[in-house]
Design brief:
The chain is α/β, with parallel strands linked by helices. About 35% of the residues lie in helices and about 25% in strands. The longest helix is centred in the last third of the chain and has 14 residues. The C terminus is likely disordered.
Length: about 210
Amino acid sequence: MRTAAGRYLLDHWLRPGLRELLAHRDMPEIEFLRANDRDGVLALLREDEADCGFFHGEPVENEEFATRVLRISTVGLYAAPELAKQVADRPHDINAFPFVLSPAGSKAELYQLQQLETAGVTPRVVAARSQYTEYQLELVCAGRGMGLLFDDDAHVKVATGELVRLPLSFAPGARCMVTSRAAPPDRRLGRAIDLICGFLSRPSTLSPQNG
């Protein structure tokens, strides 16, 4: 079964969970295909190079595809305790504090900036960047800057006192599965897709075993 997804889902969910998935009876062999984003997943489906795809973002509103929302994903702005205290003391000056973002010009950075803008935040100082969500989490925990993180990934660090969630609200997104209507999966692949959907419906904490 040819399965397309972005790096986050591939590296932190699908590949680590492969042994659990393949333990199910009649589970087919899975070939993973990396796509940069939702559009990349859809392109692979259009070209009949993938049987199904998984992504974070808005569900696909297109008659070419069948989309299933697996779970709602929320984000928050986080900082290490000392930096969070400084921000709390000067909330009017939040834009002057350092931020951790994705690489400049990437779609991930565009998403982060759009989300921050809806909360009235326009970063002026980018202290560090990384394409890897887990490294962004580490940088924020180390006090390098504030970062927009998945709440599911950050809540363990909040519980241990390593992170503080700042009192700002952001629009939720979704974790989705998509298939092509032109070439729908057969019954066996459909059962396998259902198993993966159940697996990816779990809350995430950068490790499926934690959810």
